[in-house]
User: Which sequence fits this backbone?
């Protein structure tokens, strides 16, 4: 029996809603640090010599943007359908990765040197839109990767038949962060590793949680 798959009464409805709210709310940390660090300036970049050979293909902004849609679908789906203990592990891991990543952004500010966008096609227009709304800071580790990787790991555990399609999409997301000039190679590696770390943190914490005590019949009748 999967020790992370417990009866649905493991979490109360209020606890489950609170976990979902916390999972969504923590995403605001990216926008806050992104804007704050952009105003403060300074920092460094994690580019290496291999990044010189990474091409810039604006059309990859499509899978880059679709990753955001998938996160929203995945978080809502998990809230509605995932078994309680595995859901607690997922939310705990998600929040842990975000807090670790945001802390690194603050303690070690870093940014991405983006390429110039030329051309007047739809892909170039969408690429300029992304650049205009997402500042250059918060590059390492890549939140695109840590969020996608941790979803893939938990979904592979929850829905094993989806494992390979999910990992295929994760690879596409990783390539999209490079080909859109949003991240460099080290950002992708760092974000992927953080996603794995968050996965194990979530499992380690959730397995120690105790279920919500059931109310006795005598208490329910009062």
Assistant:
């Amino acid at each position: 029996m999967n020790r992370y798959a417990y009866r649905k009464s493991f979490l109360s409805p209020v606890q489950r809603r609170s976990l979902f709210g916390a999972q969504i709310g923590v995403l605001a940390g990216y926008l806050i640090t992104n804007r704050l660090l952009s105003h403060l300036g300074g920092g460094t970049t994690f580019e290496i010599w291999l990044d010189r050979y990474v091409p810039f293909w604006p059309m990859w902004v499509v899978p880059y943007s679709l990753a955001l849609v998938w996160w929203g679908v995945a978080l809502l789906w998990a809230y509605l359908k995932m078994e309680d203990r595995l859901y607690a592990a997922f939310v705990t891991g998600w929040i842990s990765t975000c807090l670790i990543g945001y802390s690194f952004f603050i303690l070690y500010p870093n940014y991405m040197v983006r390429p110039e966008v030329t051309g007047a096609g739809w892909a170039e227009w969408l690429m300029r839109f992304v650049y205009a709304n997402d500042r250059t800071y918060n590059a390492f580790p890549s939140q695109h990767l840590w969020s996608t990787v941790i979803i893939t790991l938990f979904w592979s555990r929850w829905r094993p038949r989806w494992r390979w399609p999910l990992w295929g999409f994760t690879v596409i997301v990783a390539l999209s962060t490079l080909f859109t000039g949003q991240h460099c190679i080290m950002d992708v590696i760092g974000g992927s590793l953080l996603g794995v770390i968050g996965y194990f943190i979530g499992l380690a914490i959730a397995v120690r949680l105790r279920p919500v005590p059931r109310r006795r019949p005598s208490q329910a009748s009062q």
Notes: Residues 177 and 193 are 16 Å apart (CA to CA). The chain has one domain: 25-210.
